[in-house]
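Aggregate trends can hide what the representation actually does to any particular protein. This step matters because it turns folding into a mapping between discrete strings. For completeness, the protein is quoted in full, as a sequence line and a line of structure tokens:
=====
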Amino acid sequence: MLVYSTKTVKCKGDSENVVISCYQSKEVPDWVAKTEDFKAAINDGCMSILKNRKQKSAAENGDLDK
């Protein structure tokens, strides 16, 4: 799953942690979506799930929500 975050978010798993840095798009394992940290970031609006590379480019250019 490809995500983009405007804040640094650490998603804690059972055996590993995934950190998505501020203003970074990153491919993350599917288990990340089940974490409370991920759900909170999505609800807060600081993280978005990107559906394709076009959205990735838009996010990196600050145009994702336009």
Q: What stands out?
A: The mean pLDDT is 90. The chain has one domain: 2-51. The longest strand covers residues 2-5. The first helix runs from residue 36 to 44.
